Amino acid sequence: YHNGRFVSILPLLAPECGVTHVNIAAIHLNERYGDVTLNDDPYSAPKYNAVWEEVRILQSHGIKVLGMLGGAAPGTYTRLDRNADIFNSYYEPLRDMIKWCGLDGIDLDVEEHMSLAGITRLIDRLKLDFGADFILTLAPVAPGMWGGKHMSGFSYDELEITRGSSIAWYNTMFYCGWGSMETTEDFDKIIDYGWPAERIVIGLSTNPETSGWIHGELLRGSLGAIVEIYPVLGGVMGWEYFNSITVAEPSGEQPWCWAQLISEILHLKVRDVESSAQDKPCTAAQH
């Protein structure tokens, strides 16, 4: 919803958008046990009926739909990082929410301090309850992937060593002052640190109201250079869908145009790569 108006995500089905995954944001575990909300309302509230109807349509066309847990609002991960009884009291309603919504996975956006043992326990429970095919991703800020200052508390290096096989990829934020994609410099730091390109999805701002937004022509240069060198790049994701703009479509009335721009940049540079590699880059949208 934007300014009280429902913004459909169905245009992302267009092949030229190149979208493979959509994250529904943001899920919060509030202080009262069992109080799980999607933003400010219960996830089953009538206002979200249209959202879940469209989610089913996306899934029927092969797009995977994840829920983003946490984000800027504090508390969710603090509550999940306590003793086993308290963990279960908060985790079980989350598990029930995932089942009710029929999500294909969860993006763990930890923007508050959490212990390595706590995030490991959460990952293990999700995999135990939902199986090997359930998609788990994390959303570190870019410096967290080169050993710099970040918001999550635990070490992403250590997490990758112990639970990398359970994590599909990392939605890495290059905006809000946590890195930039104006050039390839910050991405290069991550690669030089030792991360394989296929583990990194480049997270970008889609609107100037979120700091770090980058003009499309700059993205053509930086993203184009990256996928030319790393055709198996994990992909690109945008925060967020409903207010996405491009220079060619600045009104925000056609937010899917941002995904089309990214898809064009990615496919422009990988069109000569064999199909097995060409299929790997993906564009993840947030709603």
Automatic annotation (TrEMBL):
It comes from Glutinoglossum americanum. GO terms for molecular function: endochitinase activity. Gene3D superfamilies: Glycosidases. It catalyses: Random endo-hydrolysis of N-acetyl-beta-D-glucosaminide (1->4)-beta-linkages in chitin and chitodextrins. This is chitinase. The keyword Hydrolase applies. Its EC number is 3.2.1.14. GO terms for cellular component: extracellular region. PANTHER family: ENDOCHITINASE, III CHITINASE, PUTATIVE (AFU_ORTHOLOGUE AFUA_5G03850)-RELATED. GO terms for biological process: chitin catabolic process; polysaccharide catabolic process.
